[in-house]
Amino acid sequence: MKSRRVCLLAATIAAAGAVSYVDAQDPTATLPDGSAKTLLVERCADCHPLESVTDKRKSEADWRAAVSQMQGYGVALTPDEVDALVAYLAQNFGLTPRRK
Ligand code: HEC
User: Fold this and answer.
1) Could you tell me the distance, in angstroms and rounded to a whole number, from the CA of residue 100 to the centre of ligand 1?
2) According to the CATH classification, is domain 31-100 in 1.10.760?
């Protein structure tokens, strides 16, 4: 019985922690939806803040060049992932953003 209570308490704390984390600093909350959003969040925020990417505006060609430069720094992306990411970046952080 006692251990069940402890377990419930731990779960409550974990849930509360997760909620405040999302509120305070989940960068995905402000990102436009898209196929490559997860990719961007998981691969592109290790070495610099995500804002180093999302505060830029580039053409598709320039995004492709930037992503391949990041591959040179060690970011692991398959060719399909590069295409998805470049398309997502060009669409949402392009020179003519199509944000809603
Ligand atoms: C292995 C570390 C690392 C990862 C992971 C990484 N970057 Fe970078 N990034 C850097 C470094 C170092 C710089 C600063 C040097 C520079 O500007 O060339 C940088 C700078 C940038 C810049 C600013 C320079 C420019 O071309 O405008 C952009 C945009 C960028 N990264 C995009 C990305 C994207 C997109 C991803 C995910 C695919 C990513 N980064 C992941 C290391 C990384």
Assistant:
1) 26
2) yes
Closest residue by CA, ligand 1 atom 39: 44
Q: Answer yes or no: is pLDDT of 12 > 60.
A: no
CB atoms within 10 A of CB 89: 25
For residue 57, which of 5, 17, 98 has the smallest C-alpha distance?
98
User: What pTM does this model have?
Assistant: 0.78
> Which ligand 1 atom is at minimum distance from the Cα of 65?
26
pLDDT at 26: 64
Measure the CA dihedral 77/80/86/89, to 10°: -90
User: Percentage of residues in the chain with pLDDT exceeding 70?
Assistant: 69
Confidence of residue 20 (pLDDT cuts 50, 70, 90): very low
